[in-house]
Automatic annotation (TrEMBL):
Residues 20-361 form the AMP-dependent synthetase/ligase domain. Keywords: Ligase. The keyword Ligase applies. SUPFAM superfamilies: Acetyl-CoA synthetase-like (SSF56801). Belongs to the ATP-dependent AMP-binding enzyme family. Residues 411-484 form the AMP-binding enzyme C-terminal domain. PANTHER family: ACYL-COA SYNTHETASE (PTHR43201), MEDIUM-CHAIN ACYL-COA LIGASE ACSF2, MITOCHONDRIAL (PTHR43201:SF5). It comes from the Bacteria. Signal peptide: none annotated. The keyword Ligase applies. This is Cyclohexanecarboxylate-CoA ligase. One of its GO terms (molecular function) is ligase activity.
Amino acid sequence: MNDTAYALSRSRTLWELAARRADLTPGRPALLQGDRSVSFGELCGKAERVAAGLYGMGVRPGTVVAWQLPTRIETALLAFALARLGAVQTPVIPFYRDREVGFALRESKAEFFAVPGTWRGFDHTAMARRLGARGVFEAYTGDDLPDGDPSVLPEPPADGTSVRWIYWTSGTTSDPKGVLHTDRSLIAGGSCLAHALHLSGDDVGSMAFPYAHIAGPDYTVMLLLYGFPAVMFEHFALPDALEDYRRHGVTVAGGSTAFYSMFLAEQRRQPGVKVIPSLRLLAGGGAPKPPEVYHAVVREMEVQLTHGYGMTEVPMITMGSPHDSAENLATTEGRPPEGMEIRIVDGEVRLRGEAVCRGYLDPAQTAQAFDEDGFLITGDLGRLTGSGHLVLTGRLKDVIIRKGENISAKEIEDLLHRHPAVRDVAVIGLPDEERGERVCAVVETAADTGGLTLPAVVSYLRAEGLSVHKLPEQLELVDALPRNDTLRKVLKHKLRERYSGTVK
């Protein structure tokens, strides 16, 4: 991280960080979308007018404002307007519906709710009314955003350690958890990402994920630290999105492992012709990265790939660096930045540092989440190498216990990813009267590779040296694995629900 970026990373609040960047490079583009752009100076200037409009509506420091908006320039303007006021904002993923949205509104006690109106065929305003939301307003276009005279505004917030953000875990098996963040915890997370990737003001990034995801501020902090723009995608789909990647000369792209695979699939349509000529780096996190995916991207796309480890509770924990060895980039999640402590307790990863959340809306959940030394208990399994790189070996809940023996689903998945007929795979444990749990591999097959059989999979894994007690006893072939709509994580709970009743 250069001296300017380091100095900016010590900003007390997100608004202070944005204002300092605007003073340094007011005319540089910050956000690009289609043929529209907003500079760093305009980002702050327009956000102040929106803040004044919100102030006129009754939004004050500490007012809870929920917003469920797509990845658009207007969404960033609203978020920074709320940061200027010192409001507490609770972003909600735009794909969520009545159950999740109603829960978030009730638990956060939101006094205002910004929605996009009808978006992608769904009427968000009608849902908000149906849920009895307070202070509903649309904020999809520039004309929708509140507007006012910034002279009415109070002084910007000076305290960066108060809770001003409530993010929501996915809630795939129960109600979501409201995760409490401060401006400083989000700045610390984004600084980790910026420090690891060694970017510069000449880069062009991209946001192909929901801005309401914890990755939104993570990535935005990086833009503010280095003063380079990012292309925003309201709806990401390939090959349609390639035009904007090429037009704006994107140098850094990514999102998660699923995004790497999508880019790789496009590259394979025209081997030898770079799918995005300006691209030099894929970077992301949010889901495990099989080593074979790393090697395939580097070999076929001729770009570097760095992968990291983060979660809603800690937006960036470790990140691979372009200067790491190929071995470390393929098999680890990178190293933690200065200030992030990692402790391994009985194989489980625990975390302490400025980027760690303050806990949850529910005090009982907070009490259970931290140990006596203040370390967040992640539920992830891993180990640290001699060089300080973190290797994740699975989730505590993703360990399959077969006849009393612990089996890592990730170990089997990484081996199967090398098989030419496997496009993607999820390994799960299913209830079994004799074994306790049996190992089931659910495979998304690659095109034009023929059908896989369980004996063929077992034979392949035996040849790869997998222990006999870890071999799958069940194989299911699917056209597509179920995924969420944020970072395209595989939803293993849906697979368990689907196949738990099957007997093999």
